[in-house]
Amino acid sequence: MEWIIRERDLWPENGLKAQCEGFKCEPGRTDCCCRKLLFTQPDFVNQKSHLEELITSRNHICDFYPKFHCELNFIEQYWGAAKLRYRASPRTKNMEEMEANVIAALDDVPLTQIQRYANRSAKFMDAYAKGLNGAQAAWAARKYRGHPVLPENILQELEAFQTKAS
């Protein structure tokens, strides 16, 4: 990192530490450590990950979802349905049989169910984009169960519902 920073004539006289402790840089500072300084450089900021470059080079869309948010990632919901089916399969210690059971469980989840998971995730993403919180997004997803996106006036509708309920 030091070598790259020196090449760019950005190395300070008193030097820099490699990274701030626990990756917790001071807010607003861009020169507290080598890591922060490099990650603020335009070529580093605009660089796609190797995985994203590989996916886009094959003319596919690469869309990353937040970690561990199952309501935003329908793959997590699909995996949960497959795990439920896998648990119902007979127990085995044979690796080939386990692999076959996993494949059978994944194949057993109907395509329409996977599509419903995708629609539900799209509704949650749309709800969060429109400013709803988690409970409000869940209410909207139930109310507009068959719709891929929520109406533009969802906030007014939610306020009317909450007023009527109280």
Overall mean confidence score, pLDDT:
86
Helical content class? 55-70%
* Quaternary structure type: single chain
Order of helices and strands: HHHHHHHHH
Give the percentage of residues in beta strands: under 5%
Instruction: Give a count of the beta strands, DSSP E runs of length 2 or more.
Output: 0
How many separate structural domains?
2
Radius of gyration (Å)? 24 Å
Can you tell me the residue ranges where pLDDT is under 50 for at least 5 consecutive residues? none
Q: What about the largest sheet?
A: none
Structural class: mainly alpha
Separation, N- and C-terminal Cα atoms: 59 Å
How would you sum up the global shape?
extended
- The number of helices is 9
